[in-house]
Amino acid sequence: MIDRAAAVVCLEQTRFRWPGQSNDLIDIDELTLQAGEHLFVRGASGSGKTTLLNLLAGVHTPTAGVVRLLGTDLAELSASRRDQFRADHIGVIFQQFNLLPYLSTVENVTLACAFSARKRERAAESTEVKTAARNLLSALNLPDSSYDAPVNELSVGQQQRVAVARALIGGPEIIIADEPTSALDTENRDRFLELLFREAEARSCTLVFVSHDPQLAGRFTRSIELRTADDMPGDAADDAVGASP
Ligand SMILES: Nc1ncnc2c1ncn2[C@@H]1O[C@H](COP(=O)(O)OP(=O)(O)O)[C@@H](O)[C@H]1O
Ligand SMILES: [Mg+2]
User: Fold this and answer.
1) pTM
2) Residue 3 lies in a domain
């Protein structure tokens, strides 16, 4: 039986439609993720993957239905409390990493704590936030010499690991990743996924990872596919999204 009360992520009858559109872009009857689950969301370009992540992060509000994280219905929070909830409980890995080039490697990681007292406290239980960032970077095999260098001097592979460290610091319950492997060759992609899984598992993080690359699905504990209304004419669209255990 699905234990929704203990769920980290719970979507119920969740719909999202852009203004002026005649179809729902997102139409998910039910999706529940427990702590430590790794969900793969695949779909072609334009199928709504980024929009779904933005619904989970509370950046967008659903047109109908519920997005509940850690027992909190995001729609019941004010916009500023939603921003705070995101900063406190979610780590985000963006497609382009979104690292700030003029900050050092360590500063890019600690930035995630700048907006969240909760992350600050959790990162720095026994040390300083900066030290926590260095420890994380070290665990991700970034050389000491890179810590105080401007992050744009690092290789792309290293910048990815910095993005992972920034998502992990402060122990968020949820990590969302938007096609972080799309620019990587197979070897680097595999290495990146191994690293992400290892770190998420060590922290019982729930991971939601989107990609257009269906080859990756097998590595995840769960997988769903987003389809556009064009792909699924008529009533079949109701089944366009289903969680396959
Ligand atoms: N700010 C926006 N306003 C209106 N439509 C948007 C906006 N952002 C995205 N869309 C539309 O939503 C659809 C899905 O976009 P997106 O979630 O970015 O897909 P994906 O990440 O799967 O490529 C696209 O058709 C896109 O044109
Ligand atoms: Mg996208």
Assistant:
1) 0.90
2) no
